[in-house]
Design a protein that fits this description.
With about 425 residues, this protein is of the alpha/beta class. Among the domains are: about 140 residues, 3-Layer(aba) Sandwich (Rossmann fold); about 150 residues, 3-Layer(aba) Sandwich (Rossmann fold), CATH 3.40.50.720. Strands 9-8-7-6-10-11-12 form a seven-stranded mixed sheet, with helices on both faces. A five-stranded mixed sheet has the order 1-2-4-3-5. Helix 1 crosses helix 14. The longest helix has 26 residues. The protein is globular. Bound molecules: 1,4-dihydronicotinamide adenine dinucleotide and 2-oxoglutaric acid. 1,4-dihydronicotinamide adenine dinucleotide binds next to helix 7 and strand 7. GO terms for molecular function: glutamate dehydrogenase (NAD+) activity; nucleotide binding.
C-alpha cells in the first residue's frame, strides 16, 4: 500500500491516534493531543554582509506542557515548514514521556541552509530568531536545544541574545551549549550514545551474535557520528555509511573516528579514503542493524519491502512512515522507535538544565550513567509492553508515554474520564 501522506504532522497524529486506540484512552486524550497548544510564526530582518537586508521566517511549536515546560530543538534546514515543526514538537512530547522526564514537547525551525551564509550572518540570523521567540521561551516555560544544522555555538548566541532581550541571565533556557559555557559533559555524545546502547539491547534480545554485528548508518552528523562511533566501540562493524554527499562501503569496517574527523573538515563523507564509494542504497544494505540518523520519511512502503537488516534502530526523528511500520511488523522485523532510541539527547539536555538550575556540574561518567539508567528502563518497559499487547515497539512506546501524559492532564483537570464522572464530582 502506498503512503496515505508524507506530511509528517499527519503521520505524527496517526501514530498518536493508533496508540490512543490500542490503549483505550478516553477520546478527550487524543482530542487534546492532536494539536500543538501554540505555534508561533515570526519574521525578522537581518543585515547581510553586503549591506542588503533580508527578511527571515521561523517557527516555534509548543505541543503540550502537561508534564512540564516545553522542550525540543531548533532546526535550520531548507525543508523546514510549519507542519514539520508541529510534527517534531508532537514527537518531543511523547519522547519526554517515554523516559519520564518532567517536560512537554516543543520544536522550532527556520527554512534556511546555514551553508549559504557567512559565520557573521549566521550569528545575526540566530540572534534574530532568539529575540523573536523570546516572548514565549524561558527557563521554566520552553527550553530549546540543537537539532539538524544547529549546534552549541548557535545555542550560545541565542542564549546571549535572550539575556539581552530579557535583561536576565538564565543559562537553562537553552541546552546543548558548549561545556565551557554552561553545557553538560556527555550532551554532545548523548543522542548517538543512546542510539548505540538501544541497538545493542535489541541485538541481545534478538539473540544476535554480538561478536559479528554489522551496521548500516544513514547520516554522519551529531547523531550518526556518535551512534556509529559508540556501536563500533561496543564491538560492531559499521560497513556502509550514507549522507547527503554519497554512500561509502568497507566490508572490513569503516574506522568511525577517522570518518568523523574527515566529515568535520569536508562537511560530508564523500572522498573519505578509508572506504569505497558505492551506488548501493544504505537503507536496503544486507546488515544486522540499520540505523537511519538523518531525516524523515526515509523508510517508506517502497524501501521497506527491500530492507534486509535484522532490525532497525531509529536515530532520526520520523524516518519511517506508518505504511513502512506495517510492513516491518508483518515481516516480524523489530524497530526501535525514534522516541525511545534517540531520547538520549533530550535526557542529557534535562541533566544539563538541572545542573544549570543548581549551578553545579556532574562528571561525564555520572551523566552517562544517569542517561543509561533512564533509557534502559524505558527500553525494558516498552519491549515488554509490545509483547503483552502484540504491537510494534513504536505503538508500545506511545502507549506508555500517552498513559503518563493523560494521567497528568487528568490530574490537572484538563479532562474528566467521562461526562458521568464530571457530574459525580459536581
Ligand atoms: N542532535 C540531537 O541531539 C538530536 C537529533 N535528532 C534527530 O536526528 C537526526 C539527525 O540530527 P543531527 O545529527 O543532529 O543533525 P546534523 O545536522 O548534525 O546531521 C544531519 C545528517 O543528515 C545527513 N543528511 C541530510 N540530508 C540527507 C539525505 N538526503 N540523505 C542522507 N543523509 C542526509 C547529513 O549529511 C548529516 O550527516 C534528525 O532527525 C534530528 O531531528 C534526534 C534527537 C536528538
Ligand atoms: O535536547 C533537546 O532538548 C531536544 C533534542 C531534540 O530536538 C530531539 O530529541 O529531537
Amino acid at each position: 500500500m502506498a503512503e496515505k501522506t508524507l506530511n509528517v504532522f499527519e503521520i505524527a497524529r496517526t501514530q498518536v491516534k493508533n496508540a490512543c486506540d490500542k490503549l483505550g484512552a478516553d477520546p478527550a486524550v487524543y482530542e487534546i493531543l492532536k494539536n500543538p497548544m501554540r505555534v508561533m510564526e515570526v519574521s525578522f530582518p537581518v543585515k547581510m554582509d553586503d549591506g542588503t537586508t533580508k527578511s527571515f521566517t521561523g517557527y516555534r511549536a509548543q505541543h503540550n506542557n502537561a508534564c512540564g515546560p516545553f522542550k525540543g530543538g531548533i532546526r535550520f534546514h531548507p525543508a523546514v515548514n510549519i507542519d514539520e515543526v508541529k510534527a517534531l514538537s508532537t514527537w518531543m512530547t511523547f519522547k519526554c514521556g517515554v523516559v519520564g522526564i518532567p517536560y512537554g514537547g516543543g520544536k522550532g525551525g527556520m527554512a534556511i541552509d546555514p551553508r549559504d551564509y557567512s559565520k557573521a550572518e549566521l550569528e545575526r540570523i540566530s540572534r534574530g530568531f532568539a529575540a523573536s521567540i523570546a516572548p514565549i521561551i524561558g527557563e521554566k516555560e520552553d527550553i530549546p536545544a540543537p537539532d539538524v544544522n544547529t549546534n552549541g555555538q548557535i545555542m550560545s548566541w541565542m542564549l546571549d541574545e535572550y539575556s539581552k532581550v530579557t535583561g536576565q541571565f538564565q543559562p537553562g533556557v537553552f541546552t546543548g551549549k558548549p561545556v565551557d559555557f554552561y553545557g553538560s559533559l556527555a550532551r554532545t555524545e548523548a543522542t548517538g550514545y543512546g542510539v548505540a546502547k538501544m541497538a545493542m539491547l535489541a541485538a541481545k534480545k534478538l539473540n544476535l551474535d554480538l561478536d559479528n554485528i554489522t551496521v548500516a548508518l544513514q547520516g554522519c552528523g551529531n547523531v550518526g557520528s556518535f551512534a556509529g562511533t559508540y556501536i563500533e566501540e561496543f564491538g560492531a562493524k559499521v560497513v556502509i555509511v550514507g549522507d547527503h554527499t554519497g554512500t561509502i562501503r568497507n566490508n572490513k569496517g569503516i574506522d568511525m573516528k577517522s570518518l568523523v574527523e574527515y566529515v568535520k573538515i569536508h562537511g560530508g563523507i564523500k572522498g573519505f579514503s578509508g572506504a569505497e564509494p558505492t551506488e548501493e542504497n544504505v537503507l536496503t544494505a544486507e546488515v544486522d542493524i540499520l540505523m537511519p540518523c538523518a531525516l524523515e520519511n526515509q523508510l517508506t512502503s517502497v524501501t521497506a519491502k527491500d530492507v534486509k537488516a535484522k532490525f532497525i534502530c531509529e536515530g532520526a526523528n520520523g524516518p519511517t512512515t506508518p505504511e513502512a511500520d506495517k510492513i516491518f511488523f508483518e515481516k516480524g522485523l523489530t524497530l526501535v522507535p525514534d522516541i525511545l532510541a534517540n531520547s538520549g539527547g533530550v535526557t542529557v539536555s534535562y541533566f544539563e538544565w538541572v545542573q544549570n538550575l543548581m549551578r553545579y556540574n556532574w562528571t561525564f561518567e555520572e551523566v552517562q550513567e544517569k542517561q543509561e539508567k533512564l533509557m534502559n528502563k524505558a527500553f525494558e518497559e516498552i519491549w515488554d509492553l509490545a509483547k503483552e499487547f502484540n504491537v510494534d515497539m513504536r505503538t508500545a512506546a506511545y502507549m506508555m508515554s500517552i498513559k503518563r501524559i493523560a494521567d497528568a492532564m487528568k490530574i490537572r483537570g484538563w479532562y474528566t474520564e467521562s461526562p458521568k464522572e464530571a457530574l459525580a464530582t459536581e
